[in-house]
Each structure stands twice: as C-alpha cells, then as structure tokens.
C-alpha cells in the first residue's frame, strides 16, 4: 500500500507564503533541490489544489534538458500522474493530469491501496482535508530561517495528530524534518 506524503517548504513561523502570497524566500538551493528530487522520485501521483496546480504548471514547460536539479525536477514532475481538485477550473492542460471537482477521501484511500509508488499532496488547503480524513502518513517540512509574519499556514489548525520523528537533517541553513503519523 502506498503512503500519502505531505511536503511543504515553510518559514520558521510556519507559513508557505507571506501575507502578500509571496514565497521568493523559499527558493531551494541546488543541494536542497537535489534532496527534494530524491523524495519526489518515490511519488507516482501528486494530489494538488488549484493554487498549487497553478504554481506547479511551470514544470510542465520548464526545460527538462537543463543539467542539474531543476532539469531533473522537471523530468520527475512530468513523469508522475496528477489529480487537481477544483470547483472553479473547467479544464486542466498539463499532461498526465485529471480534474476532480471535490476531494473524495474514499477515492484517495482506494488510490493509496492500488498504487505502487507513494502519493504526494501539495498545498496546505488540500492537505488539511487529507489530514482531517486521516489519510496523511508522512509529513516532510523544509524549514527556512525566515519569519514572514503571516500568510498561508503550512499545517492546519484544529487537528490533533501524534507523530514520530523519522529524520532531522540540515541542508545549508534549511532544516528538513520528516515525521510519520503514529499508528
């Protein structure tokens, strides 16, 4: 059975973007991008909310022949399947991508059971639904040394979940934390 992984690049005060929606402070170094690539190679399907889909569409046309971690990520991204959850989008243009109007926990659980590779969930709003449904198995946070003072929270409020620390690593000034949900 596949695992559902939530990954977020976050500020030290727990936001994926600032109050204006900016996240330029979160641009990963080549070293960090390489680590993200290692993790993303294990993901066969990405579950995305609309805003995350809009941001990640860049990787559909980014040069995949560029040497280094950015080109590698473009190739990894294009190779995985994607499910976009949106009530407002009428169509998706990215390859290997399907559109669903509602997040359906039963369908996601069935996808976990039938998948060989893990599933990734992108975007804190969609991830909050998966957390509430008890579907998230692993949490990967890349904590940047910056306080942004507000914005979109990386982790949802109002949820109690016991986790165990799997790994704690330093990549330059960024701290990578991997937690697994306790059974």
Main features:
183 residues; alpha/beta; eight-stranded mixed beta sheet; 8 strands; 28% helix
- Quaternary structure annotation: single chain
Strands, count: 8
Mean pLDDT: 94
Distance between the termini: 15 Å
Radius of gyration: 16 Å
| Molecular shape | globular
Helix content: 25-40%
Report on this structure.
It is a single chain. By secondary structure, the protein is an alpha/beta fold. The longest helix has 11 residues, at 30-40. It has helices spanning 30-40, 50-56, 58-61, 69-79, 105-114, 124-132, and strands spanning 4-11, 43-49, 81-85, 97-100, 118-122, 138-144, 163-171, 174-181. Helix 1 (30-40) runs parallel beside helix 4 (69-79). It has an eight-stranded mixed β-sheet with strand order 4-3-2-5-1-6-8-7, sandwiched between helices. The chain is 28% helix and 29% strand. The chain has six helices and eight strands; from the N terminus they run E-H-E-H-H-H-E-E-H-E-H-E-E-E.
List the helices and strands and how they pair.
Layout: E1 4-11, H1 30-40, E2 43-49, H2 50-56, H3 58-61, H4 69-79, E3 81-85, E4 97-100, H5 105-114, E5 118-122, H6 124-132, E6 138-144, E7 163-171, E8 174-181
Parallel strand pairs: 1-5, 1-6, 2-3, 2-5, 3-4
Antiparallel strand pairs: 6-8, 7-8
Helix pairs in contact: 1-4
What would a concise description of this structure say?
This protein is of the alpha/beta class and 183 residues long. Helices cover 28% and strands 29% of the residues.
